[in-house]
Amino acid sequence: MTDGSPALRQTPLRDRHLALGARLVGFGGWEMPLQYSGISDEHHAVRRAAGLFDLSHMGEIWVTGAGAGQGLAAALVTDPPGLAVGRAHYSLIAAPDGGIIDDLIVYRLAEDRFLVVPNASNADRVATELEPRLAGLDAVMDDASAATALIAVQGPSARGILAPLTDVDLDALKYYAIVEGQAAGAPALVARTGYTGEDGFELFLAPDTAIGVWDRLMAAGVPEGLVPAGLGARDTLRLEAGMPLYGNELGLDTTPMEAGLDRLVKFDKRGDFVGRAALEAAREAGPRKRLVGLLLRGRGIARHGYPVYRPGEDSSVGEVTSGTLSPTLGEAIAMAYVPLSAATPGTMLEVGVRASRVPAEVVPLPFYKRGPSQPASDKERRT
Q: What is the pTM of this model?
């Protein structure tokens, strides 16, 4: 690039995105589709039928060997050895001071074989952190991010679209489960996971098979209402579902307790883990702030970084981490960190929107939860 910045990495599906009229943007070091037909249209399609996402920017790190489970238990706040083979869980990797380096998903494919999936922007950092944490154990780390494509089909029609194209029994595949099989003509790891608040599947593939899989899913799904969906819709979907985004709700300046993720920290697991002492101290002291949902009760849309006030006070008490006009609810929603004294549902606060202050009510998360007929996500609140 002419400004000296490193070139953006491209997924195997870039040509398909261009052919579909996608607007491409830089995200996490990758050139990714922000939207195709429009964020709102894509969002509604996922809620009502299905959306097809290219997630090949995400990281994929294999940890294998007899000591793989023990090593991951020492590296993460959760307890991966407690996972049954074929299951997954949501996890965090913490810094020694208790701050969150990344949120990620851990899948267990065999007794001694785990797949760690970090966020795109943190994939290199997570790999760098894991390597010394596994040192001295019978565990081998293999960063396969560059050799893996990831495609997700999400929405209430996702199962019906994928089922005729795979040898995996999707009805038997529980949420946060994974299995090896064939999908849309290619070998794949098929996981019932996602980041939209809807039922759906994520397919881990060899990059040279990604185009064929994408094309088969599109051909099968379009008659069922499936549309290609970009990062814009993925963001509004996850916000409605109360799912945090690293760099917004999560970061090195935030503990799991403050983010409402204290349930993930397994203090009772065997052995020590990085950040344990700091997190025990944080648990004892109690959180300094709390992540809450806000429903704006006036005109205006809260955005990342906007200040939050108590009515009648000049100094802000918090900050919006994510905000949008909810396509599903038709109302402005946001997440924000505020003091515990202002975190009780029903509390009235104000968000500084440009030169105005817009009334906002603290409400429970998530803003949206799908019907009881669909499996509940491990990442719903939450998560």
A: 0.94
